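Quick log. Single chain, no ligands specified.
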Amino acid sequence: MTSFFKPHKYTATAPIELPQRQWPSRTITHAPIWLSTDLRDGNQALFEPMRIETKQRLFDELVRVGLREIEVGFPAASQIDFDFTRQLIEKNRVPCNVTVMVMCQMRKDLIERTVQAVTGAPRVIIHLYNATAPVWRDTVFNMTTDAVLNLIAEQVTYLKQLTDQQPQTQWILQYSPETFSSTELPFALAACQAALQAWEVSAQRPVIINLPTTVENATPNIFADQIEWMNTHLTPREHLILSVHTHNDRGTGVAAAELAQLAGAQRVEGCLFGNGERSGNVDLVTLALNLHTQGIDCGLDFGQIDKTAQCVTQCTGLPIHPRHPYVGDMVHTAFSGSHQDAIRKGFAKRAAQPTIGLWQVPYLPIDPADIGRTYQDIIRVNSQSGKGGIAFLLEQQYGITLPRKWLLEFSKIIQQHVDTTACEVSAAEVWQYFQATYVNQGPEVTYTVATDAQGVQVQMVLANQKLMGIGQGLLAAVAQAVGGVKILSFSEQSLGTDTDAQALAFIEIEHEQKSVFAAGLAQDTTYAAIGALLGAVQRAKAGKPV
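-> predicted structure:
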């Protein structure tokens, strides 16, 4: 058998020599500057790139959720991107607190075209980039390091000359040493310093230095070391915004972005829900809601997350995985019995102590209500579930809380059903099974009730038989009438809140030293109580206790 492993084909990324690293002892205390690249990097990753109308719809949603820097496209490479950018500017569709960014390679004709696309905008970020890693320098471009540095100086200078002719616009340079994570740190620094010098960086001419994991090729701690090294070597640091753009080739794009912030990054680029080339960009929704769960204001509004998700999926044609962090249709759903029991107890504690401020519900790192979700699908029941899940469905959907012994009995009935069908059972089906098993299981009855000095007297006719009983209360009188039944517990509640609400009565009686449960449902509370007791007697005679 041929071995899958090829020990000489791949090699580990070398660690960074950074003995005085500071980032491991830091914590994130505030949100970064967010940049959405859904309309550029995300768009480049689609089977069918977005049309102008679609881009406008997604742009509006990005603005609605609070993004204030948005990369709108690659206008020198796409006529649609060029036209969309012009439409945004000419039709004043960019809010005054939003800055658009456009991307461009380092070629003079492309730079000219890019500047044309954004002419007239009050504030623009021009994103210039070139690949700096050895395999790109040697294999793709066949350029020496000096040639790369000369290219950066020449092209940034040319951009400066063009933009200086339009002082009505505030021009901001963003420079990215593409493939930064695979580039030798001294050369990455030299590339950035070349761009800063050519732009004549100052307090009036700030620059964004964007350091990408164009292809994620190491563990997040190594990327954090790279960012801290750059953070301490770039100069003049006070006039720079240090940004990161992490991809997800190793599945650690979020972790890399978080550790990069600890290492000094002030800004993060990414896409909603992690769209992007290959395995995607960092997921801005996950990154932002991670902050939310740590008590940090992320600065973005995902209070209607389903609306945002629907817009993104319709604009991109890409689905969101049902187990996607925070957002997936099933991410808050528990099937496991032990999980369900813990979640149910967490909700019960919050209900009992409504002044509790801190969110502490097992297995739910975020309150689904914070992002516009309901609690309806938090617990779903199948063959993996237990009594806690069944109890939660009855409590949440119908307001019914069963005693533990009753719940144990009923859960066995549901378990038998799901084991037989191998299918999920809905809350409505659980309620149907409950009614079929316990509700109004006794015979039809007519009755009269009278009260005198002896107590409550009830006369009943059921199954063509006349019965009479006397007791201190209605149920005691009925219990005597049907043969001296011992009532262990009784309770009732209203099912519904409007004028059509029905009375639901619960009863537990003793039969042959075992508990028998039943319920009565009727518009009239008295009839519901009698129905519950007669149903319990009927179930006892039929040998129904499990």
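The chain has a mean pLDDT of 91.
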